[in-house]
Design goal:
This protein has one domain: Rossmann fold, CATH 3.40.50.300. Helices cover 42% and strands 19% of the residues. The chain has 7 helices and 6 strands. The protein has a 6-stranded parallel β-sheet with strand order 3-2-4-5-1-6, sandwiched between helices.
């Protein structure tokens, strides 16, 4: 019996290794604007191909969210937001935001247990990892529910995570209207 458990355990490790080779993980990071926009373009293309998609936006509420409105009635896309109106900006908020992020991961896991998806987009997860509101292990715990691609976006991804992904796209900022004090424009920035 012990041998069977050991053999089964080895088989699971092999399956996990094969899974990690098959599913592509893309990290979109950098200090420039447009990380979410780039990832939304990718899921738009995947949605047109008939792929099933789950989008989870961390540290966002979905209020004044143009992409949320656009995709809310589209087939094959489930959309979640886990945040508050006040954006996370200090360590004093850490405990409260950690609870929100952990609840978010639990909701995602329960949702994904029912139905796997082709594409999993975790938006703004870089900051959540940087401030230790979430752990990489928590994210890996839901990765196996995606069958095609995982997209991670955000600033300040810890360096050790960069070695665990297949593709890294860095968005830089050369010039942006924000620098002149211009407000975000509906249809352009949100």
């Amino acid at each position: 019996m012990c041998q069977d458990v050991e053999t089964f355990s080895q088989a699971l490790k092999t399956i996990k290794t094969i899974f990690q080779i098959m599913v592509k993980i893309t990290l979109i990071t950098g200090e420039g604007k447009g990380k979410t926009t780039l990832s939304i373009g990718s899921i738009f293309q995947k949605q047109r191909e008939g792929k099933s998609i789950l989008v989870a936006q961390f540290l966002k509420t979905g209020v004044n969210c143009g992409e949320c409105t656009y995709f809310e009635n589209k087939e094959n896309i489930r959309w979640f937001t886990f945040g508050k109106e006040e954006f996370f900006h200090s360590k004093a908020q850490k405990e409260e935001y950690t609870v929100i992020m952990n609840n978010g991961i639990n909701i995602l896991e329960k949702t994904l247990e029912k139905t796997k998806v082709d594409v999993l987009l975790l938006d703004e997860v870089g900051i959540a990892l940087h401030f230790e509101l979430l752990s990489w292990n928590q994210l890996e715990g839901i990765f196996h529910y995606a069958t095609d691609e995982i997209i991670l976006t955000g600033r300040k991804f810890p360096e050790e995570i960069k070695s665990k992904v297949d593709t890294i796209i860095e968005i830089g900022e050369i010039k942006h209207p924000y620098a002149k004090g211009l407000e975000a424009r509906m249809g352009i920035d949100f």
